[in-house]
Write a structure and sequence with these properties.
- The protein is of the alpha/beta class.
- The protein has one domain: 3-Layer(aba) Sandwich (Undecaprenyl pyrophosphate synthetase).
- The chain has a 6-stranded parallel sheet with strand order 3-4-2-1-5-6, with helices on both faces.
- Helix 3 runs parallel beside helix 4.
- Bound molecules: 3-methylbut-3-enyl trihydrogen diphosphate (2 copies) and magnesium ion.
């Protein structure tokens, strides 16, 4: 298989472990979130260098709204600062920024900055950077179902015309290939309501490394591991090998 196809087209990341990183240093959790911002830049740089076309970062889940008010408030401030600081540079580097998740829960200050970041970078095509904020995989699937149901109720769509491709087009990231590789830092082995629909055949990779400690070597290990895996998509190993050699499946 050509080397290029061994690079994920789309990488999805759960950036976890900020709080524990701070606690290990006897500092408040928000210090960990601040340190985590550096790792976000490192991860974006890595993707640009590696030629990865799309990166989806889980920044804040639907469930994270339930955290203590001071932590949520501090995260929102960090979010505003990061948008004010980074968008111009990301634009210069050819990054297209998009946000997925329930925007109605954010303040006007944040919603305006999100819309601005998307509008400014809309024409870029080097890296599609998707920030999942106020995002939940179940909510994503529910919203897709609701939008299809509304079309059926209005007589614009017949139930029998609903297939996987149409459903996919109503979910977040419907315009991108699904993630090839998923990385979760922080040592926990779970999906935590991230991209439930989109991760159906994604390769999963977990590391104990806490998000603020992320380095390029760790990301490279994930990519090397990904490159060594055989993705079968339900077929047999022999069928996959045959297809790679240009033969029809046995
Ligand atoms: C991930 O780090 C960032 C967010 C969820 C906003 P955590 O804050 O979950 O860090 P831990 O898991 O408590 O260490
Ligand atoms: C997942 O991390 C959400 C983000 C990284 C934004 P959590 O820390 O919220 O997940 P759980 O609570 O350990 O499952
Ligand atoms: Mg966590």
């Amino acid at each position: 298989m050509p080397a290029a196809s061994r690079i994920p087209r789309h990488l999805a990341v759960i950036m976890d472990g900020n709080g524990r990183w701070a606690q290990q240093r006897h500092r408040p959790r928000i210090i960990g979130h601040r340190a985590g911002a550096r790792a976000v830049n490192l991860c974006i740089d890595f993707c640009l260098d590696a030629g990865i076309g799309a990166l989806t970062l889980f920044a804040f889940s639907s469930e994270n709204w339930g955290r203590p008010e001071d932590e949520v408030g501090a995260l929102m401030k960090l979010f505003i600062n990061a948008l004010d600081r980074e968008v111009d540079e990301l634009h210069r580097r050819g990054v297209r920024i998009g946000f997925i998740g329930d925007r109605s829960r954010f303040s006007e200050a944040i919603a305006t900055r999100m819309a601005h970041a998307e509008a400014v970078t809309a024409g870029n095509d080097r890296l599609a950077l998707n920030i999942a904020a106020s995002y939940g995989g179940r909510q994503d699937i529910t919203a897709a179902a609701r939008s299809l149901a509304a079309d059926v109720a209005a007589g614009r769509l017949r139930p029998e015309d609903i297939d996987e491709a149409l459903f996919d087009s109503r979910t977040a990231l419907g315009d991108l290939p699904p993630p090839d590789l998923f990385i979760r830092t922080g040592g926990d082995h779970r999906i935590s309501n991230f991209l439930l629909w989109q991760l159906a055949y994604t390769e999963l990779w977990f590391t104990e490394t806490l998000w603020p400690e992320l380095d390029a070597a760790t990301l490279q290990r994930a990519l090397d591991d990904y490159a060594s895996r055989e993705r079968r998509f339900g077929l047999t190993g022999a069928q996959v090998a045959g297809a790679q050699n240009g033969m029809s499946p046995a």
